[in-house]
Write a structure and sequence with these properties.
Helices cover about 0% and strands about 55% of the residues. It has strands at about 5, 10, 20-25, 35-40, 45-50, 60, 70-75, 80-85, 90-100, 105-110, 115-120. The N and C termini lie far apart (about 40 Å).
Length: about 120
């Protein structure tokens, strides 16, 4: 059974930092791509960053470039999102997504989300 467990969310002041973690388990093989999304109240879910195994590259949304860094520990099947210089508009539920093979087939698997609130 696939599990994506996010952690690290919380309340932080503007300009502060947080690090999110997402531990993946239950995949047949290491996921081919892992991503972070976020969804603010009343808005659609948006892609924040994505890392693909084949290319080894990470791409970021323009709104977070230079402030957020995604890293991946393949040995632990864990990805991280280091968020710095946080702004109130970064407030959202952050979701981890993995693309890979599992017992139920090949596809996207989502975590339950972790709340990030940026406020003074």
């Amino acid at each position: 059974q696939v599990q994506l467990v996010e952690s690290g969310g919380g309340l932080v002041q503007p300009g502060g930092s947080l690090r999110l973690s997402c531990a993946a388990s239950g995949f047949t093989f290491s996921p081919s791509a892992m991503s972070w999304y976020r969804q603010a109240p009343g808005k659609e879910r948006e892609l924040v960053a994505t890392s693909t195994s084949a290319s080894g590259r990470t791409n970021y949304a323009d709104s977070v470039k230079g402030r957020f860094t995604m890293s991946r520990d393949n040995a632990k099947n864990t990805v991280y999102l280091q968020m710095s210089s946080l702004k109130p508009e970064d407030t959202a539920v952050y979701y981890c997504k993995a693309l890979g093979w599992a017992a139920t087939g090949y596809g996207d698997y989502w975590g339950q989300g972790t709340q990030v609130t940026v406020s003074s």
